[in-house]
Description:
single chain; alpha/beta; Rossmann fold; 5-stranded parallel β-sheet; globular
Amino acid sequence: MKFLVIGSPYTGKTSLIEKFVKKNKDYFFLDIRNYRNIINKKFYKNNKHKIGPLLQQLQLLFIKPKLFFILIFFLFFSPRILLRFWKFYFIQYFSQKKILILRKKKIIQDEGVVKKIYDGIPDIVSNKNQFYWWKKNYRRINKKLLFTFEGYDKVIVVIAPVKNIISRIKKRDHYLLNKIQKKAYLKKFHLQNIFYKDLIKLLKKNNVKTALINNNDFKESYTNFCKALQNS
């Protein structure tokens, strides 16, 4: 079985997964942020910032010819998204393939193609035009990337209240946001919550099993997280 856990940064996804996997040994945490060690440690040692071996990229296009049409769509729609899409779809596909061969466990994947693309959204201070471009086009992008959820037994979306997100950042990172940047980040985070809620509706409409975890209280969220995984 394969589960995908997605959501904006600082919503508590990784903490929920790590606690669950620690108590449930028949599950494996696939953190694709560790893709260099998972896919080909030797290759990335000398090519840290490259997507992956060229032969594997060509192999992926051969295995999934529909990717040609997706790449063409993004080439004209948004070349910037095209690069992020290709990189993270490659990483997701080959990370899963490698782990499924090595591990005979249920897999919980942290991060995902859509999530990584959402992460590239600039805030209104960094790039006002792109921020409003996203606000206008996110539904269209969600529909185009629906196929990236194929093969998962359930998709779990973790969100968190906007009012709590700055305190979460302070606990994990060196907090450097000034007043204007803080306001811009909160606006971006709120927009991402809208994206994810729209995505859940789209997934349900297309018969993809989903669960929404609103991580306001970690203890309660963990209970709901366990139920979402164990009732699949």
